[in-house]
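Progress report, Aim 2. The chain analyzed during this reporting quarter is listed below.
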Amino acid sequence: MQKGPSSRQLPKELRGIRGLAPLLEKLGRPSEVYTPAQIPFLARILGPFCIVVGLLIIGAFSLFSQVLFSWWLWWQADFIPFVGVIWIVAGLWFTFAPFLSRRMFVAVCPQGLLYSKRKAEAILWDTISSFWKDVQTDNKGDSSFSYKVQCKDSSTFLFTQELGAVERLGQRIEREVTRRLLPQAIATYDKGTFVAFDEIAIDVQGIRVMHKDTPLLWDDVEHVGINQRVISIYKKGEYWDWATLPVARIPNVAALKQLIAYARKEHDKGPLRRMIDAYNAGFSLHFGSITLSQSGVEFGKNTLAWSEIGGIGVGEQEVMIKRPSSVWGQDEWEAFPLPTVTDAPLLKGLVDYVLQGRRA
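Predicted C-alpha cells for the chain:
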C-alpha cells in the first residue's frame, strides 16, 4: 500500500489536522491547499469600534449621570449603561467569532479532495456524481462564487467565499468531474438513452426541458448559449429564446455543454451516417416492418442472415429484398408494401453499405 506523506512533507496549514494519514493514503500528496479567506479590513475594525463605543457610553453615563439623568426614572437611567453593554458584547462577538468558528481547509490531491471543517474527510474524484456552481453579481459588478458537490452516497460538500481563491478551486473541481463524467454521458447518448441533467435532458432526438411539453429536435436547434449564470436555448426561426435555465440549478454544466457539442456534431453527419454508426455500434435499427442488425434482416417472425441477402430495391409501391437461390438457379425476392416501411431510402443505403462491406 502506498504510504501517505509524512507530517513534515505536508503544507503547514494541514499539519495540525488530526486523522490525515489514512485519508492521504487514498488521496495522495496534496498539490494545492485552500485556506480561509482573510477577514476584510472593515470587519476587523468593526469589533474594536463597537467595544470603544460601548465603553464611551458607560463612561459618559458614569461621569454625567448626576447632572443629566438625575431627574429620569431609575429604569430609564439604567437603560443607558445597558446599551453600552450591548455594544461591548457585539464588539466582542465580531472580534472573536471568526477565530472560534471551525475553519475550513481544502487540499487538492491526485485522487480527490481533502476536506476539513468539523472533521477531515476524503472526497474521491470517482465518487462525485454531481457538481453545481452558483455565480452571483452585485450592483457594483463584483461576483461571488459558491460550489457544491454531491457524492454517490448522497453526501454533499459546499465551498463558498469562506475559502480564499474559491473560484480557482471550483474550476479545478469542475475539470476533474467533467473529465470523469463526460465519457459515460457520451456512451449513454450513443446507446440511444437520454442523459439527464435534472431539469434538462439530451438524447439523439434533441433537447428536453422539464417545463416543456415537447422536445426541441436537433434540426430545430439554432444555438445553445451557456455562460456563468444561464443556459439559453434558441429555436430556428424564433427571435426569443425557447428556454432559459439558471446554471445554479443544473448539475455538471461543463459536461452538458460538451455533450451538446458532441450531439450536434453527430447529428450534422447526416441521417445515413448516423444509421451506419449505430449499426456498427451493434444497435438494431427499425424501419417499420423491417429491422436491421448485425445478425441480418428481420421481418415478421423471419430472419435472413446477411449471407442470404443479395441486394435491395425500392420501387414506387414496394421494397424488395433479393435472396440468391442455389436450388432453381434464380433469385428470389421478398416484397414489402411501401406504406409498411419507414425511411425506405435510408434502409436501402444502409443495406447497400453492409453488403458492400461484406464483398470487400
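The chain has seven helices and 21 strands. The first strand starts at residue 32 and ends at 34. These observations will guide the mutagenesis work planned for the next reporting period.
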